[in-house]
């Protein structure tokens, strides 16, 4: 059974904590920063939740809370799920990190998993997708089709994940076209279709003929479609929102990881970890590349995807210098996931201003 946002929280506030009998379903909760209809990040996490239901059937009982603001609202929503007796709670936005950690300390018998963060504890783990792998492919594809040599990128918030992905797009593009540049507009929101569309139009006014985004609606892709430019889908397959403009979508498939984690908690084998799922795990997928790509371009992208999946190519391999020209990683050195998790600098060649 699935309960929707307001009903889930209201019911949670009224339910007492009770021990589950062995034949009771395992209660699994999900907290989303946006609506499940955003067609992006939250939508794709909810597809993972539905995958859990399909896999486990009556053995699980899932709840989701959508449109939860980062901050005090997040703690209230997470705490309500804990009070309702959930056995496992997934919180799916970087800004939920501190709230998740606080509630986890108060409920040591509940398992918590936080997406994209870095705080862990005895009952708190972290997980994310290696989106930078898909972004590197995005950059390579964008460099193949751009005529202006300008790629636009819509940033949500200046957190490591977003900075990392901007860098990955640029590095992927430079590997194909050394003359390409990237321009960035920050919108300080995860989901605001009007603001996202305005940002896309601003970038296209500045000469970008390919627009990628780290926000959750298909509005930037639709804006690119209207102006005859290229756009990229974020988190889910967005091709239907700009069929001609759609270059590719970088898709997160969370279902396998959610199913694995639920099974581990059921079996009593779960341990806190920092999980990164990428192309090798099929968590990151490149979906619906444009049929306007030539056979040669598509073959090149297929090879790049295969090389990233096998580990033959790592997008963040030295030499890597920052904007000032300071060498950060020498030739052949690969950034570790711990270093990538706190990336707060642009690579050399990006002229965008780093937001305060």
Observed structural traits:
11 helices, 2 domains, disordered N terminus, Rossmann fold, 356 residues, alpha/beta, seven-stranded parallel β-sheet, globular
Describe the structure.
The protein is α/β, with parallel strands linked by helices and 356 residues long. The chain folds into 2 domains: 128 residues, Response regulator (Rossmann fold), CATH 3.40.50; 178 residues, Response regulator (Rossmann fold, 3-Layer(aba) Sandwich). It has 11 helices and 15 strands. Strand 9, helix 8 and strand 10 form a beta-alpha-beta unit. The chain is globular and about 60 Å long. The N terminus is likely disordered.
Tell me the count of domains. 2
What is the overall silhouette?
Answer: globular
Q: Please count the helical segments.
A: 11
Total beta-strand segments? 15
- With strands numbered from the N-terminus, the spatial order across the biggest sheet is 1-3-2-4-5-6-12
Mean pLDDT: 93
- Gap between N and C termini: 44 Å
Please report the first level of CATH classification, the CATH class of the largest domain.
Answer: Alpha Beta
Q: Rounded to an integer, what's the Rg over CA atoms?
A: 20 Å
The CATH homologous superfamily of the largest domain is named Response regulator
Give me the CATH architecture of the largest domain, please: 3-Layer(aba) Sandwich
